[in-house]
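Entry 14. Ran structure prediction on the chain below.
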Amino acid sequence: MNKLVIALAGIFFLISCRNDKKAEDKPVEETLTSGSIVLLTDNTLQPIVDDVLTIFHSVYDRANIKQINKDEAEIINLLSKDSAAVAVLPRKLTAEEENHFLKRKITPRISQFGFDAVALITNKQSTDTIINLEDIYNILRGNESSLKSKLVFDNPSSSTVQYLLAKAGVTKVPERNIYSLQSTEEVVKYVHDNKDVVGIIGLNWLLQPPASLSEYVENIKVMGVKNVKAEENSDKYYKPSQRNLGLGLYPLTRSLYVLNYQGKNGLGMGFATYIGGTEGQRIILKSGLLPVMIPTREIAVRKELETTE
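Output, structure tokens:
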């Protein structure tokens, strides 16, 4: 009898294991909070997306969003090839870039979730602490500039460089007075080790640097930038703080978007809803970037009962 019980138990165990394996092999249905997608993320926004995804995954354990960090140009290329359908970028697609999806009758869902900035940094020993944007634009146009420092950026395909080129009204990076490196980390380290250069990076990397970069970030200076839209004869210069971004005083402010071209209510829409909702906006606010919606704080005030003698 004991042998029969053991045999039956073994059979039930094998059946259970097979059922469990089948359940594991079965893909999780994609919904707003479950399933698997690839999220293309602009390199300059890597730290904040890391943070939001960490919390998102802890809340929704059936969701698997694979973050792939790329330059702006690479992301646009991958979207156009349908290698992914959801991206985080500091700009919307142009009408020409979006036409690929419209031809396939995919309605884009664009969700703005915050603001960041292009920051200009310099060596801590540099005597320059402020900068005029026209000097930057003249260098990018290949013209003479009163700025003696050279510009340093990660690579021509990055969103920070493309943003400044558009501001300067040009499409290509000139060959003079500009150094091109490979990553934001390299730019920070280069500025840290060299005088007479101005680095161009995304603000998010200054606010949330990885541990390996923290020491370098602490020993560089963020430059004040003159707001060319400010009143004439104004000598005010502004740094990229939350306050200055919110008041429109810092001139190199960018809007941040989740671009969703899934064409359905899938996990991409769930992520966009989360990062644009109360919890996601709190994470943005805590990071030092500016959320589109300032989360409210509820403070409970307990009124003590008055007593009379």
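Confidence is low (pLDDT under 50) at residues 4-9, 301-309. Will compare against last week's run tomorrow.
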